[in-house]
């Protein structure tokens, strides 16, 4: 099975200052999303604030055991639903733009089983992508936002 490694960093590159901070997830109801992400996925609330100009509530959230990247959840003000249907996994790739965020897990089968026990929608059950040496699966939050999980294979 093929794996990959990152090329060397380029600290002298024109935009070397760019580092990952957060991914924004848009939902219709901030309180409901906060409840789901903290009670089901056990995300931690980092900081919350209202945004009067946009008429929304916002918050930064972190995964239970990872401080490297935050999720910014924005809720309220009646957003239009996404045209991406999470029930049809191949169809989710029919639209341009942001598709998913990915989590690395040590045992994808066990993580999927726990998500199913917690009532989380599994959009694509685990499958192997040999060219990258990963087993991956996809799940969705209650608003159809997609998340990938990957297990690095030996």
Automatic annotation (TrEMBL):
PANTHER family with a match to the protein in the record: METHYLMALONYL-COA EPIMERASE, METHYLMALONYL-COA EPIMERASE, MITOCHONDRIAL
Limits of the VOC domain: 17-152
A Pfam family the protein falls into: Glyoxalase
Keyword Transcription listed: no
Listed PROSITE patterns: VOC
Gene3D superfamilies the UniProt entry points to: 2,3-Dihydroxybiphenyl 1,2-Dioxygenase, domain 1
Alphabetical keyword list: Lyase, Metal-binding
Protein known as: Putative lyase
Keyword Lyase part of the UniProt annotation: yes
An annotated Gene Ontology molecular function: lyase activity
Taxonomy, superkingdom: Bacteria
Organism annotation: Boseongicola aestuarii
């Amino acid at each position: 099975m093929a794996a990959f490694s990152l090329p060397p960093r380029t600290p002298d590159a024109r935009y070397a200052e760019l580092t990952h901070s957060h991914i924004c997830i848009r939902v219709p109801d901030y309180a409901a999303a906060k409840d789901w992400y903290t009670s089901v996925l056990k995300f931690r609330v980092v900081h919350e604030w209202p945004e009067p100009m946009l008429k929304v509530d916002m918050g930064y959230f972190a995964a239970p055991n990872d401080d490297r990247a935050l999720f910014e959840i924005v809720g309220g003000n009646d957003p239009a639903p996404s045209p991406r249907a999470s029930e049809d996994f191949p169809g989710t790739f029919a639209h341009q733009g942001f598709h998913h965020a990915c989590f690395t897990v040590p045992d994808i089968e066990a993580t999927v089983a726990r998500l199913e026990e917690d009532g989380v929608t599994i959009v694509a059950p685990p499958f192997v992508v040999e060219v990258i040496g990963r087993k991956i699966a996809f799940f969705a939050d209650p608003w159809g936002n997609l998340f990938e999980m990957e297990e690095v294979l030996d």
